[in-house]
Amino acid sequence: MKKNGDQEILQLIQDPKTRDMGFRQLILAYQKRVYHVIRRMVLIHEDADDITQNTFIKAHQYIDKFQGQSSLFTWLYRIATNESLSFLEKKKKRYFFSIDDHREKMESYIDQPGNIDGDEIQRLLQKALLTLPDKQRLVFHLKYQEELTYEQMSEITGTSVGALKASYHHAVKKIEHSLSKE
Hints:
Elements: H1 3-14, H2 19-42, H3 45-62, H4 72-94, H5 99-111, H6 120-130, H7 134-145, H8 150-157, H9 161-181
């Protein structure tokens, strides 16, 4: 959504008479993109749905603190990525997963028919992505699949452009190594 579309949504949200309509427009404008970023991080549809809902609940709670220094898209993605990373961390702790156990569980999910769209290459890529630390996986998704610039990614993650470039480079090398073994 363009900046002027963001402004229209924000104006609707700021007016108590049109606040609900503004939030509906916010959700319509960004829900699919937010869901896809989250889904790529957590893989499981039901978890992604829950985190997407939590993202928009937090957006509703904190919209008055939105200062307009970034786009609504960037602000929502920052909430979504933080929610996703928190969810993954809590899930690992709650089920006392070791990193390897968690990766094994997610790989078995990828191997079940119907859970991942695409061909064998897509399945192998998803498995390779599971070998990455969560934050590296996020950087890879934002750069490669969402096609964001490093500057946009920096706004979303609160990480320097240099660190993001290094993370992406390391992620690509690990993925290449993992795929070459297959």
